[in-house]
Task: structure prediction
Amino acid sequence: MATNEQISLFSAPALDNSAPAEDFNADLIPTSATIPIPTGIYQTMNALAVHCKQCQRCGLANGRTNVVVGRGNPSASIVLVGEGPGQNEDEQGLPFVGRSGQLLDKILAAVKLDTQKDVYICNVVKCRPPGNRAPTADEIAACRPYLMEQIRMVKPKIILLTGATAVKGLIGDKRGITKIRGQWMEWEGYLCMPIFHPAYLLRNSSRETGSPKWLMWQDIQAVRAKLDELVEDS
Ligand code: SF4
Result:
């Protein structure tokens, strides 16, 4: 199969876009994880944020300062998914705003991707796990419908998954990030790539060939090239 044909397989998002049942009470969504969130319930990112900001669907609600919904362009070509808010994010109510966020912005800018214009950034959980621990499977499951709605509304050409928790949380692949980073994967009709989390790069400063920073540079250039290809074909 030609490359262009393979790429076209990824172009049509396959998430169900059906409207919720007429008798569904949307006001119940934030109260408990047992209340389902139907696909297509939110028409705008602001409407989703209203529910997120009052959400009590999991225990992470108890320790948060702010709910961290997302930042960037809700019509972007790329959605970047992280693990969950850290201290800076929790305080400011925005994802990837600490040192990790600054490094992420720099990495994206190096291939002329503007985080306000070209990317929508969010996390698998919207509230900060205590002590920066990884979110549990139950917490990820409780928050997942919000993430699914975010992806549905943005309809990106590419999804970047930063770190193993983001990969596991969205597409269920439990392999280590060093094994799968830089690989294109298909999930629900979307083209996805796992990449290192910028916090990991901050802990590994070497730029030598084969180092995490060097690998990230290869990956982000591959993302840029693929995006150019997809835009050209559309
Ligand atoms: S992490 Fe998600 S599901 Fe849990 S309280 Fe926050 S917004 Fe709700």
Remarks:
- The first helix runs from residue 3 to 8.
- Residues 1-19 have pLDDT under 50 and may be disordered.
- DSSP finds nine helices and six strands in the chain.
